[in-house]
């Protein structure tokens, strides 16, 4: 682990060093021989997650945000989480969230705005507590703003809680803080890949690269061509065609990464954190010109600085506020355009066994005024250089070949509880079905529009016919029950996006719909849902249905 930036509170985890500022990447000895899998950066504290599921924290502890009362200067284990296998961590201004392997969320630190989700406004909670109201939900991801929090469930629902002065909870209101997780109803049915939060703004990214933003927009950090706050999620139409795969938020700025390795930034630019060689604010996403020609694979935003990693050219760039050394350029000057971070960066291709000193970066992290690069040296053979989340449990639960195979592998008769629960999860959730059968051919699902559904209809047909067979009546019954009781009654008449309409194309391919025993319970109610769509989505569904097979997968 390499770290640089503000060390005044111990947030770099370097132990009792004399310097308050570390101006170039320095090895964090504590992590020698340990495997880190996630890092959460708060304003003045840091949480490290090891691959064995244990959590270590360091830095400022004024409000209990470390979850322990041990040393602040070096990482110490959060022993209260000892019985849990943690899979992700996130840090806000002064609070921390941890997600375990069962999809449960724990929170601690400052709670005065309800950001801990514990149904109170306690000033500070010093020991991790389980967010009970999410106990029936399998959470896949968590994200922290300064004083608000988000969770994405495996069923594709986005939850929010905490401070809401700028509408950053996306619930349609401003002002009152909320102390228990609430579903953002206006995003129901959309298949999400990632959630992200900044100072007081938030984003959700769909599986096909559509970007929704909400909350504070004083500097244009929502990229919506104005500076009006939004209390409902708004689609960034300008990014629809850019194939966005990752979003990172700073205090008042935002950076997005595209599939091709391009970087767009927008919002506050007063310190150069947008990388456009100016200190102007940008109200629209603008491509970072000086990074063009490089295939950037990772980005990360700190409070007022941005990092970008390009493995093919073996370099890391930083720009923005540099006063605390957070740019890693060996100086404390601000940079208005990308400047190289000093480090022994090598690409996986050049990670020769002789190059023991070379660092092949696994992940970069930034937050507050601190920056981290988790790296590997020679003889460690996995290739990590990719910002997208790979762990299937950190994603929404979509239908695929491997899942269907697993469901059908049990002996006929009674469904194992685990399989029954997973079938119910997928077939009760519009998001899960809308994220299934995505076309990987050209044009792929990143080209989703009113003329292209992004769905591979052949795959949908084949998989549904493999799943629904006379040999497994118990599977058929579970699917039928989930559709009848949960999915169809909850279908919205005004889905928020074209990606929420895909199930109207794919579900009729399921043989259950042509079985006359299901006409009254499934087929007719489903047809009614289709016909009760508002005019615009109904028209779009018609367009998708009539689009030529080539653009439909």
What does this protein look like?
By secondary structure, the chain is an alpha+beta fold. It has two domains: about 375 residues, Regulator of chromosome condensation 1/beta-lactamase-inhibitor protein II (Methylamine Dehydrogenase, Chain H, 7 Propeller), CATH 2.130.10; about 160 residues, no CATH class. It is built from eight helices and 28 strands. The chain has a four-stranded antiparallel beta sheet, with no helix packed on it. β15 and β16 form a beta hairpin. α2 packs across α5.
Which range best describes the helical content: under 10%, 10-25%, 25-40%, 40-55%, 55-70% or over 70%? 10-25%
CATH class of the largest domain: Mainly Beta
Envelope shape: globular
Total beta-strand segments: 28
Going by CATH, the architecture of the largest domain would be 7 Propeller
Task: Please supply descriptive tags for the structure shown above.
8 helices, about 15% helix, disordered C terminus, four-stranded antiparallel β-sheet, about 550 residues, single chain, alpha+beta, Methylamine Dehydrogenase, Chain H, 2 domains, about 30% strand
């Amino acid at each position: 682990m390499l770290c640089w930036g503000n060390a005044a509170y111990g947030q770099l985890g370097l132990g009792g060093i004399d310097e308050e500022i570390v101006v170039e990447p320095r090895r964090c000895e504590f992590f020698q021989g340990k495997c880190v899998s996630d890092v959460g950066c708060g304003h003045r504290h840091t949480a490290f997650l090891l691959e064995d599921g244990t959590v270590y924290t360091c830095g400022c502890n004024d409000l209990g945000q470390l979850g322990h009362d041990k040393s602040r200067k070096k990482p110490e284990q959060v022993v209260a989480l000892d019985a849990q296998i943690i899979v992700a961590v996130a840090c806000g201004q002064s609070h921390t969230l941890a997600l375990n392997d069962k999809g449960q969320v724990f929170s601690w630190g400052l709670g005065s705005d309800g950001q801990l989700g514990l149904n109170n406004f306690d000033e500070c909670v010093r020991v991790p507590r389980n967010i009970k109201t999410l106990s029936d939900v399998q959470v896949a991801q968590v994200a922290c703003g300064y004083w608000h929090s988000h969770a994405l469930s495996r069923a594709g629902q986005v939850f929010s809680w905490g401070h809401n002065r700028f509408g950053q909870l996306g619930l349609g209101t401003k002002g009152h803080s909320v102390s228990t997780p609430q579903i953002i109803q206006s995003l129901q049915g959309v298949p999400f890949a990632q959630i992200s939060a900044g100072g007081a703004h938030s984003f959700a990214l769909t599986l096909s690269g559509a970007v929704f933003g909400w909350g504070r927009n004083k500097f244009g950090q929502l990229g919506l061509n104005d500076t009006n706050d939004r209390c409902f999620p708004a689609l960034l139409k300008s990014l629809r065609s850019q194939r966005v795969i990752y979003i990172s938020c700073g205090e008042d700025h935002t950076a997005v990464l595209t599939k091709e390795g391009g970087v767009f930034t927008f919002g506050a630019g007063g310190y150069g954190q947008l990388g456009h060689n100016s200190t102007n604010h940008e109200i629209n996403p603008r491509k970072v010109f000086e990074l063009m020609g490089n295939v950037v694979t990772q980005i990360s935003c700190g409070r007022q600085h941005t990092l970008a990693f390009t493995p093919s050219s073996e370099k890391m760039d930083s720009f923005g506020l540099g006063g605390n050394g957070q740019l890693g350029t060996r100086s404390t000057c601000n940079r208005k355009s990308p400047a190289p971070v000093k480090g022994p960066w090598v690409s996986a291709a050049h990670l020769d066994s002789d190059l023991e000193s070379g660092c092949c970066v696994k992940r970069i992290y930034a937050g507050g005024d601190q920056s981290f690069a988790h790296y590997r040296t020679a003889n460690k053979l996995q290739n990590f250089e990719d910002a997208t989340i790979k762990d299937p449990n950190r994603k929404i639960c979509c239908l695929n070949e491997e899942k269907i195979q697993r469901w059908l592998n049990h002996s006929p008769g009674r469904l194992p509880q685990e399989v029954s629960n997973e079938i119910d999860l997928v077939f009760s959730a519009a998001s899960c079905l809308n994220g299934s059968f995505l076309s990987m051919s050209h044009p792929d699902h990143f080209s989703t529009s009113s003329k292209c559904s992004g769905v591979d209809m052949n795959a949908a047909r084949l998989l549904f016919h493999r799943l629904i067979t006379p040999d497994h009546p118990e599977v058929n019954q579970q699917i039928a029950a989930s559709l009848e009781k949960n999915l169809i009654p909850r279908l919205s008449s005004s889905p928020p996006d074209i990606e929420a309409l895909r199930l109207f194309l794919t579900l009729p391919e399921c043989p259950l719909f042509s079985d006359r025993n299901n006409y009254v319970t499934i087929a007719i109610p489903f047809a009614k849902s289709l016909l009760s769509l508002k005019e615009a989505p109904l028209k779009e569904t018609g367009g998708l249905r009539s689009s030529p097979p080539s653009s439909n997968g």
